[in-house]
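User: Hello, beginner here. Can you help me understand these amino acid letters and fold codes? It all follows right here:
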Amino acid sequence: MEWLIPVLIIVVIVAIIGIYLWATYNSLVTLNVRVDEAWSDITVQLKRRADLIPNLIETVKGYAAHEKGVFESVTKARAETLSAQGPAEASVAENHMQAALKSIFAVAEAYPQLQASQNFLRLQSDLVDTEDKIQAARRFYNGGVRELNTKIKVFPNNVFARRLGFAERDFFEVADITALAEPPRVQF
């Protein structure tokens, strides 16, 4: 009977460790899926904005056909956004897109008839709405990444999380911090 108490203590300790590992693994899986879902939301919004760009270019092109360089930079930024794989590439593409949008709206300011065009105003409104959705999706994604990375880094999770296949994720950050200080102006 004396050996029963130490065995029960060991069984209880093993059970507690097992329950802890099970709960931690499940929470890591949940956070990982949440981050994947948030990244999917970002790509949907980036695609939506990319789909608006050709219409915007055509509308502006009708008024400012001689601004070929601006249209080429917007088209290049759109292609870069659509081909970006992962947060790091998307961040670089986002910076290029912000610069391209600034240039196209700067061109549009020189054409009062364009600013009064219903098609342009609708595209402008859709673009503002999409930019807001991108920012919201980005905040949701970065929040999920923060939670996942924290869970992976804290002790004792850091001992086994990487062995179970969980890795830290990259934040979707703006490389050019000045882009945050002066976002593209889309209102006239």
